[in-house]
Structure formats: C-alpha cells, structure tokens
Design a protein that fits this description.
The protein is α/β, with parallel strands linked by helices. 49% of the residues lie in helices and 15% in strands. It folds into two domains: 206 residues, Alpha-Beta Complex (Spore Coat Polysaccharide Biosynthesis Protein SpsA, Chain A), CATH 3.90.550; 84 residues, no CATH class. Helix 9 crosses helix 12, helix 10 packs across helix 13 and helix 11 crosses helix 13.
C-alpha cells in the first residue's frame, strides 16, 4: 500500500528506521521501506547495512548525483503508488504515524499530495545550531490553518505523501543544489495538483550549524534567480521575490544591493555571535537584491 522512501547522505537515520520498523511489524499491511544512499562514506554505509533486513531495503549509489536524482531513483524503484518520502533527519511525532497515513489514504482516494507538517522540539539546541532552530520555529512550523492558505508554497518534502506518477512527472533533475523543492511545488501548482494538508507533523532534528545554514540560504537564493532567468518559476512566486518587487517599485532594491558589502559581515556575526532571525531576514533580503541586480 505504501512505499516509505528515505533518501540519506551521511546522516544517521537509525532512530527513524527502527521506529518505522516497529510500527510496520504491528500493522500487518503492505508497507515497504527503502533507504536510498547517495554515495556516503564507507563507514556510514556500514551503519546503513546494519538496518537492512526483510523489512528494509538499501539502495546504494556509486557516485553522488544529488538529492533530486536520489529521490527520483527511489520513486522509480518503489513498488507501490503511494510514496511517503521522509528525510533521514526527521522523526514522527505520533507513535501510530503510519497507521494515520493509511487512514488518510483510505479517506482520500483522489489526491496527488498530502502533507502533514514540520515541527521542531522545544528544547533549545547548541548555540551553533540556534539560528536554524529559531528559523524553523518562525517559518516552517506552521499550523494546519496557515498551510491551507498557501497549499503549494507550504509543502516541504522532508515528509510528504505523493502519488508515484505525480512525483516522477513533476520532478526536475538539475545541479546538486539546495532548494529545488521550490521547483517541485511550483510545478505542482501549475498543473493544479490536488494537495491536502493534515495535522500529522514530524520533528526536524537535523539542524545545520549556523554558518552552514547561511550558506544553504545563499545557494537557495541563487537557485531562485537562476530558475527565474530560465523561465521555470514566476518572478513573484516566493515571498522573497515579492519583497524584492515591492522594494524595486519604491527604488529601494538598488539601495539594499549597494549596501550589501556593508551588510555582508552580518552573516559571519549571525553564525558566530547572534542567532537573530530578524537580522537574518535583513541579510537574506539584501543578498537577494544584490543577486537580482547583479544579473542586470
């Protein structure tokens, strides 16, 4: 009935896999569990092999092909049409997690995507991970009501149930860059895919350190500008694009771009000294203005 697919790269998914195995054993329904490793280190692969058994398959890649290629390979390998993608760094909040997904499938026969939400623990992480944790609480931990207002924009593939044919048709393989979820959600919106939001969140546990998180934001912004230039997404699809257009309308985008060399050290300060989401937003917006205006 369900293929649970876990793409991973050097992140220990043992806690997730063991929890899923326990529930699969108790349900007595058709659920396959596949881990897709994207050319991790030899020592890490040895850990993954310890998870492989009759309940769990392991797909190994000889070279790193990127997150989207890994997920697409998992999707094509899966034997069922209901694909539940779970990142290696998430953990179900509910102890009857898979049972609730099965109930949703039975209650929603005509769907393309079902999303249960992302949440974060209340326990504060280490200082070097605090920025990612605060950002997740402010922007990614959304209520069901808020997610339903923007059904496509609020999709996060860290834990997503999607029809096999829908995923394959809407996934674009590009460079191994962070942020291609943007393109998947946009393609789903363009085709008017049937998206349902439910209240079944998972914890996002794999917090990058502050400096790594800022680098990922920078990659994501460059990707958005690139996708815009290639006509693959609208220029007002994401909120950062809308903010840029508003600033540009009032002749302020040029100013922020001009000031970016003065603002740029803020990135180092955020990583080392002050985990402030407000100042991160200032940094993100000025960087996006810089990237947009550099192309002109």
């Amino acid at each position: 009935m369900i293929s649970v697919l876990i793409p991973t790269y050097n992140y220990d998914c043992s806690a997730l896999v063991l929890q899923l195995k326990d529930e699969i054993a108790s349900l007595g329904v058709s659920i396959e569990l596949i881990i897709g490793d994207d050319a991790s280190t030899t020592s890490f692969i040895q850990k993954l092999k310890q998870l492989e058994d009759d309940q769990c398959r392991l797909l190994l890649a000889s070279e790193n092909k990127g997150r989207e290629a890994n997920r697409l390979h998992l999707a094509k390998t899966a034997q069922y049409n209901n694909l539940l993608f779970m990142d290696a760094d998430v953990l179900p909040q509910s102890t009857d997690f898979l049972k609730k997904w099965i109930e949703q499938i039975n209650q929603t026969p005509h769907y393309d995507v079902i999303f249960g939400g992302i949440t974060y623990t209340q326990e504060r992480p280490l200082k070097q991970q605090l920025l990612r944790w605060k950002y997740g609480h402010k922007y990614e931990k959304q209520s069901l009501e808020n997610r339903q207002k923007k059904p496509y924009l609020s999709l996060v593939t860290g834990c997503l149930l999607i029809q096999k044919e829908v995923f394959i048709r809407h996934t674009v393989i590009d460079e191994a860059m962070y942020g291609l979820d943007i393109l998947l959600s946009y393609n789903l919106m363009k085709s008017k895919a049937v998206v349902k939001h439910i209240d079944l969140p998972v914890y996002h546990l794999g917090l990058e350190d502050n400096a790594g998180f800022i680098r990922k934001i920078e990659e994501s912004w460059r990707l958005i500008v690139d996708l815009e230039n290639r006509g693959l997404i609208r220029k007002d699809y994401r909120s950062i694009q809308q903010k840029y257009l508003a600033l540009h309308r009032f002749k302020l985008a040029n100013l922020l771009s001009f000031l970016f060399p003065l603002i740029q050290p803020l990135g180092v300060f955020l990583a080392d000294k002050m985990a402030s989401v407000f100042w991160l937003d200032v940094y993100r917006l000025s960087l996006f203005c810089r990237l947009k205006l550099k192309q002109n």
